[in-house]
Design a protein that fits this description.
About 40% of the residues lie in helices and about 15% in strands. The chain is globular and about 60 Å long. It has a seven-stranded mixed beta sheet with strand order 2-8-7-6-5-3-4, sandwiched between helices. It has a four-stranded antiparallel beta sheet with strand order 9-10-13-12. It has two domains: about 120 residues, Aspartate Aminotransferase, domain 1, CATH 3.90.1150.10; about 200 residues, 3-Layer(aba) Sandwich (Aspartate Aminotransferase, domain 2), CATH 3.40.640. α3 crosses α4, α3 packs across α7 and α9 runs parallel beside α11. With about 350 residues, it is an alpha/beta fold. The chain starts with 9 loop residues before the first helix and ends with a helix.
Length: about 350
C-alpha cells in the first residue's frame, strides 16, 4: 500500500483557476433542489425510483440496473465480485481511464495492458494472447482521454473471444454525447457484457457521485452481494430521481447539444492555432490535441487560471493536452491565450 500511486484526479492536482477544463464536467450548475426530508432514516440500498427511471432511460428492465457511488464504484465492485486477489487478472488497453489500474492495485489483482493501435482501436490478436487467467476486460468507448469510439465490429469480435471466459465491461461514461453508439441493446445477446454509466458528465452532476452498472440479472445479483448496505445517500437519490425524470432528461439533451456545438467551434479554432500540431476527432465533451510545446502551453494557461489536463505520461500521447468543453466564453478564452502564445513564439523565432 505504501508504494501505491493514487489516482490523480483533477481536484487532487489542484490549481487556482477560474476556467476549469480538466475534469470533463458540465461548466454550469443545474437547477435541482432537495425535496426529501427523511435524513433521520437510512436510505434504500437501491432506490426504487432511481432504478426504475434509469432502466426506462436505458431501455432495460429494473433488474438489469445497479446504482452506485459513481461508475468508479462499479469498476471496483466488478473486481471484488469476480476476481480473486493473487490469482485472477483484469485487462485494459491504454491510453485509457486510470482507475482500472488503481482499483486493481488496491485490491491486489494483476492487471495486464494491451496497447491500443495507432488509431486507438483494439489490438485483438494481442488481446487474445493475454486472455488466459483474465476475468474482466475493461473497454472505454468513447475512450477517455482520446475521445474516439471503439469499432463496433471489433467489440463483437472481443465479445466472442471472451464468451465463457471473462466479462467485457464497456465504460460508457460519455455515451450521451453519441447515444447511437451504446451497447445497451446488446445485453440480450451477450450474457457476459457489462456497461458502466454515470450522471457526472452529460447530466451535469459530477458532485453527486452517482453511477450505474447495466448487466444481465445474474451479474447484478452477484454485485449486490458485495455492494455497501447504503451506497446512495438520500439527497443523492433525490436529485438523481429528478435528473432522470422526463424534464431532467430533456434538460440533459439540451446541455449535450450546447456542448457539441461548442466542441465543434473549439476544434475548428484549435486547428487555426500555430502552436497546435494535431486536433483529434471527439465523440465526447472534451478534445484531445497535440501541441508543439505542451509543457509551456500547459503552464502558461495554468498561470492564467485556465486549467487543462496534461496527458503526456499516457502511452502514445506525448505532447497532448485534453481540454474539457466549457461555455463558449471559456472556449474563447482558451483560443485567445493560445493565439497570444503562437504570436509570441513567432516573434521569438
Amino acid at each position: 500500500m505504501r508504494d501505491l500511486t493514487p489516482y490523480q484526479s483533477a481536484r487532487r492536482l489542484g490549481g487556482n483557476g477560474d476556467v476549469w477544463l480538466n475534469a470533463n464536467e458540465f461548466p454550469l450548475p443545474v437547477p435541482f433542489e432537495l425535496s426529501q426530508n427523511t435524513l433521520n432514516r437510512y436510505p434504500e440500498c437501491q432506490p426504487k425510483l432511481v432504478i426504475e427511471r434509469y432502466a426506462r432511460y436505458a431501455g432495460l428492465q429494473p433488474d438489469q440496473v445497479l446504482v452506485s457511488r459513481g461508475a468508479d464504484e462499479g469498476i471496483e465492485l466488478l473486481m471484488r465480485a469476480f476476481c480473486e486477489p493473487g490469482k485472477d487478472a483484469i485487462l485494459f488497453c491504454p491510453p485509457t481511464y486510470g482507475m482500472y489500474s488503481v482499483s486493481a492495485e488496491t485490491i491486489g489483482i494483476e492487471y495486464r495492458t494491451v496497447a491500443a493501435t495507432d488509431n486507438w482501436q483494439l489490438n485483438l490478436p494481442a488481446i487474445a494472447e493475454q486472455l488466459d487467467g483474465v476475468k474482466l476486460v475493461y473497454m472505454c468507448s468513447p475512450n477517455n482521454p482520446t475521445g474516439n469510439l471503439i469499432s463496433a465490429d471489433d467489440i463483437r469480435q472481443l465479445l466472442e473471444m471472451t464468451r465463457g471466459k471473462a466479462l467485457l465491461i464497456a465504460d460508457e461514461a460519455y455515451i450521451e454525447f453519441c447515444p447511437q453508439a451504446t451497447l445497451a441493446s446488446w445485453l440480450a445477446e451477450y450474457p457476459h457484457l457489462v456497461i458502466l454509466r454515470t450522471l457526472s458528465k452529460a447530466f451535469a452532476l459530477a458532485g453527486l457521485r452517482c453511477g450505474f452498472t447495466l448487466a444481465n440479472p445474474p451479474v447484478i445479483d452477484l454485485l449486490m452481494k458485495v455492494i455497501a448496505p447504503y451506497p446512495l445517500s438520500t439527497p443523492v437519490a433525490d436529485i438523481a430521481g429528478q435528473a432522470l425524470s422526463d424534464d431532467g432528461i430533456t434538460l440533459m439533451r439540451q446541455h449535450v447539444a450546447q456542448l457539441n456545438d461548442n466542441r465543434q467551434w473549439l476544434i475548428d479554432a484549435l486547428r487555426q492555432c500555430a502552436c497546435v500540431e494535431q486536433v483529434f476527432a471527439s465523440e465526447t465533451n472534451y478534445v484531445l490535441a497535440r501541441f508543439s510545446d505542451s509543457p509551456t502551453i500547459f503552464k502558461t494557461l495554468w498561470d492564467q487560471g485556465i486549467i487543462l489536463r496534461d496527458q503526456n505520461k499516457q502511452p502514445g500521447l506525448a505532447g497532448c493536452l485534453r481540454i474539457s468543453i466549457g461555455t463558449r466564453d471559456e472556449c474563447e478564452r482558451v483560443i485567445a491565450a493560445l493565439q497570444l502564445l503562437s504570436g509570441a513564439s513567432r516573434e521569438h523565432a
